[in-house]
Amino acid sequence: MDNEILKYLSKYIPITKELEEEISKIEFIKCFDKGTVLLEEGKISNECYFIIKGCIRSFYLKDGEERTTEFHTEEQAVVPSAYGSNVPSEYYLECIEDTITGVGTPELETEIYQKFPQIESLNRALGEAIMAKQQDSFAEFKMASHEEKYLALLKNRPDLLQRAPQHQIASYLGIKPESLSRIRKRIMNQK
Amino acid sequence: MDNEILKYLSKYIPITKELEEEISKIEFIKCFDKGTVLLEEGKISNECYFIIKGCIRSFYLKDGEERTTEFHTEEQAVVPSAYGSNVPSEYYLECIEDTITGVGTPELETEIYQKFPQIESLNRALGEAIMAKQQDSFAEFKMASHEEKYLALLKNRPDLLQRAPQHQIASYLGIKPESLSRIRKRIMNQK
What we know:
The structure is a homodimer.
Chain A: H1 4-10, H2 17-25, E1 29-32, E2 37-39, E3 48-53, E4 56-62, E5 65-72, E6 77-78, E7 92-95, E8 99-104, H3 106-115, H4 117-143, H5 146-156, H6 160-163, H7 166-172, H8 177-190
Antiparallel strand pairs in A: 1-8, 2-7, 3-6, 3-8, 4-5, 4-7
């Protein structure tokens, strides 16, 4: 099975011959160069992404400054808040690495769900799992000190420290770049 | 239609006779007194809730202190992170008012989804909408100053200020009670 989407689905549901044929013939794998902006503030969003390889950053422009709020990496779904609605996006999506993704649209989703209800069930269940994880991350974020936030990142997503520049990481952690530098130095000295 | 769950569903999908009969005969409405603890840290969670009236607070115990991370109110679903898994909960759920909810279990969900796939479709779609909202709230929280957090609460959920004590509100906003008092005073003086 060389189709990445099928490989992923096969972890959760049996892949019937029919499903394999259908998914294989849809051309929804796209490659984007590093620096590609997938969505801009004020634009309508009609695409969602499932990252096979690479990294997509969400950021807002606030008082003329970029404020990074999320990094999406392998096996994560990126569903813009305004996806499939007519509401303009409040933020940007940018590939910070060369990125390979599956691309979904509301039309494609409707078509697939009609033919394969098991995929809708799967998406319902996966959606709930993602929601629970998001809920926990938000709660932990609220409770953590700046240092605890950095330590949690080191533990849970150490790859991000190699993949993104430090000022984006600071913004993602909701702390000032100077504070992040101080925290990093303090932790290095403790080792 | 005096069934609150049916009333809610009817906003999104057509209510067939069969669906009405089925939903009406399930006894999943429960009333809980103010102060009832629905879930404790370390316990397995096998129930999710849909609030018809009332308020459920999520809190963690961290260093012996209660840290409020969420208030769930009318028309919101409360799905514990560990719902339906065998993972012990990391937090508590407590009714801070007399609360009327629909109560779901994994078994009940499976049964309903099998009989009424349209409800699973609806839950998939609603789940995605909730996820998008959660994502936006988290991003806004990361970017906001303490004062902006309080102003956003005043704008989006002013009822919470009447429903919950100030120290819980402060914790929910991720700020110290003293800071919250100062912010409130400052804003009152500006008016």
